[in-house]
Amino acid sequence: MSDPTLEQELASILQSNFTAICCQTVICGILLYDYILTFGKEVELVWQRPTRALGGTVIFFLNRVVAVGMIILGNLNTDLARYTYASCNYSVIFDVAITLLAYAVWAAVSAIRVHALTRRYWPLTLLTLALALLPPAVDIWLSSTMTFSIAPLGPLVLCMESSPVSTQLNTK
């Protein structure tokens, strides 16, 4: 006999997974559409023109890497029946790495904007950079406390991550 609670939990997980896959597909489509529309101008304005602002080109490139990395991550390991400990571990590490890179790019862009808007006032620029780098620092600390496990649930294998840090502290 089948357990109705297990069936409801499986249905809920599969529905959530399906919704996540649909959302990722839409995001991929929109990002691809944007890249196709703007590729000509991107090549002309960013890659062909010699520029003194090499930092801007590097930040633009890193922003593209982050976007593509997040898309790859979103489509990685969506098959809930084939998780292994290694794939669980590596997908979470890849997620943390891409998220940290995104935070770093956003912190750099924020600091550059403040630097330009305050007419090169370094104390405010450095304060903005320091405050923008606090979330990645906290994420690095939280990630260092994580442990991973594989949890079978009926025909599915779920990637579970846990941390000794309380949920209340994690969400504040």
TrEMBL record:
<feature type="transmembrane region" description="Helical">
    <location>
        <begin position="121"/>
        <end position="142"/>
    </location>
</feature>
<keyword id="KW-0472">Membrane</keyword>
<protein>
    <recommendedName>
        <fullName>DUF6533 domain-containing protein</fullName>
    </recommendedName>
</protein>
<dbReference type="InterPro" id="IPR045340">
    <property type="entry name" value="DUF6533"/>
</dbReference>
<feature type="transmembrane region" description="Helical">
    <location>
        <begin position="12"/>
        <end position="33"/>
    </location>
</feature>
<dbReference type="Pfam" id="PF20151">
    <property type="entry name" value="DUF6533"/>
</dbReference>
<keyword id="KW-0812">Transmembrane</keyword>
<feature type="transmembrane region" description="Helical">
    <location>
        <begin position="53"/>
        <end position="76"/>
    </location>
</feature>
<feature type="transmembrane region" description="Helical">
    <location>
        <begin position="88"/>
        <end position="109"/>
    </location>
</feature>
<keyword id="KW-1133">Transmembrane helix</keyword>
<feature type="domain" description="DUF6533">
    <location>
        <begin position="22"/>
        <end position="68"/>
    </location>
</feature>
